[in-house]
Specification:
139 residues; alpha+beta; Thiol Ester Dehydrase, Chain A; 6 strands
């Protein structure tokens, strides 16, 4: 498991008719974890950057391995696996204890709010993410 993770409890609203977590809710859990990681880095509204820029999910490559069920205590991790000029790829995992339930690579792109076209991450944001990425490699 990575160093950054948040706890999530599975509520009845998270489950489908079969009593297991509905697949899209894993993506919601991952969104919360990414948001909290960005909050820890000092961004109180992580989707909104300076100069009319937004962070938006570009793509998600997700693998579902084991089901979570009602009342499970989960840990949802977020780590930066790739940082480019216009996007960040987060490697995210959902665990129940030591069991890996779901894993995903989520690509988050920086776009201009006015036209939703790709834009470079602000220099300060890129530098902070790069610093975090490098410090995580040495832990």
């Amino acid at each position: 498991m990575t160093d950054f993770s948040i706890p999530i409890r599975v509520y009845i609203e998270d489950t489908d008719a079969g009593g297991i977590v509905y697949y899209v809710n894993y993506l919601k859990y991952m969104e919360r974890s990414r948001t909290e990681l960005m909050r820890c880095l000092g961004y109180d509204k992580p989707a909104f950057l300076e100069g009319g820029l937004l962070l938006v999910v570009h793509s998600a490559n997700t693998r579902y391995l084991l089901p979570a069920t009602l009342d499970d205590a989960l840990q949802v991790s977020a780590e930066i696996s790739k940082l480019a000029r216009t996007y960040v790829v987060f490697r995210q995992c959902v665990y129940r204890g030591a069991a890996l339930l779901c894993e995903a690579d989520i690509k988050v792109a920086c776009v201009r709010q006015a036209d939703m076209r790709p834009a470079a991450l602000p220099v300060a944001v890129h530098a902070q993410l790069k610093g975090y990425l490098n410090s995580a490699d040495t832990i």
